[in-house]
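Hi R.,

As promised on Friday, here is the backbone we talked about, encoded as structure tokens. Could you run it through your design pipeline when you get a chance and send me back a sequence?
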């Protein structure tokens, strides 16, 4: 039986040992990198993507806006007047300078409008709504008759292992609503077929015209879902006629599309001539269905 020369055996052993050592070294480095990545990710999550309590408004404002300071002042909310709130005052970046309300001091003034528990979540899902207003140096509101508050939001989900609330989604602004520099008339969570939606109701009055609009937004992702102008009444003193359009929205029975139910809007359109005292009333019905490809409701 032929045997390999001794020097070949030595070379094979050395090469095999080097390969094993290299593999072990790579494995150890990868393990270290993996542990470091997990620790770093966990730290980043704790620092940036979690809040410890939905009741700690100061922590929430610091987490989302990194304010220069936080002050205490009375609220400007139409639906909750007389309440003392915390206001984060922060320096706007280029996007905020262009898209958000800037106060007279050149900064953004943001407070927590409301914190709402998602029904049925047993304290594990919350929607936080922020409002950013244009505030003057004398603490009054700026803005014109059609100018409103900027609305932002955060959606939090409770993480049982860590005992904190994870920030699933957040935006500084998803819409503007209200008038005379103030907030909308009311906000609420409402069942909207597949899930809950945030309803923002705003009224507007000018030169004999009165309007009320309901806007629905996805409570989790803040996308606009549906808008209905509940009423539009025109009755100016110097006008020879008055008109009114009243719309009532309801869901149709059935599964709908992608969990969003079909919508029915009943419309009553009235016209009144002051000189002839003649009144004409017309009734009609509009139907809307969800278009999953476009991510919005469309009129049938």
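Update: got your reply. Pasting your designed sequence below so it's all in one thread:
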């Amino acid at each position: 039986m032929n045997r390999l020369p001794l020097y070949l055996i030595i070379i094979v052993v050395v090469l095999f040992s080097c390969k094993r050592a290299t593999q072990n070294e790579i494995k150890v480095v990868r393990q270290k990198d993996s542990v470091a990545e997990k620790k770093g990710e966990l730290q980043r999550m704790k620092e940036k993507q979690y809040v410890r309590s939905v009741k700690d408004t100061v922590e929430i404002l610091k987490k989302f806006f990194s304010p220069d300071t936080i002050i205490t002042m009375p609220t400007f909310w139409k639906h909750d007047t007389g309440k003392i709130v915390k206001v984060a005052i922060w320096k706007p970046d280029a996007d905020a300078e262009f898209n958000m309300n800037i106060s007279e001091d050149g900064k953004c003034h943001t407070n927590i409008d409301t914190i709402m528990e998602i029904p049925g979540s047993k304290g594990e899902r919350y929607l936080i709504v922020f409002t950013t207003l244009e505030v003057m140096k004398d603490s009054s509101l700026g803005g014109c008759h059609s100018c409103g508050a900027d609305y932002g939001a955060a959606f939090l989900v409770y993480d049982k292992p860590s005992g904190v609330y994870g920030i699933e989604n957040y935006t500084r602004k998803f819409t503007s609503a209200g008038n005379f520099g103030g907030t909308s008339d009311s906000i609420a969570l409402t069942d909207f077929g597949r899930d809950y939606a945030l309803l923002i109701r705003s009224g507007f009055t000018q030169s004999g015209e009165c309007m009320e609009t309901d806007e629905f937004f996805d409570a989790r992702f803040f996308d606009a879902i549906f808008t209905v102008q509940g009423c539009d009444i025109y009755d100016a003193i110097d006008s020879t006629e008055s008109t009114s359009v009243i719309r009532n929205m309801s869901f149709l029975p059935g599964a709908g599309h992608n969990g969003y139910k079909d919508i029915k809007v009943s419309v009553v359109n009235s016209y009144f001539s002051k000189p002839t005292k003649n009144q004409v009333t017309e009734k009609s019905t509009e139907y809307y269905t969800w278009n999953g490809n476009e991510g919005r409701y469309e009129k049938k």
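One thing I noticed while checking it: The chain is about 20% helix and 45% strand.

Thanks again,
M.
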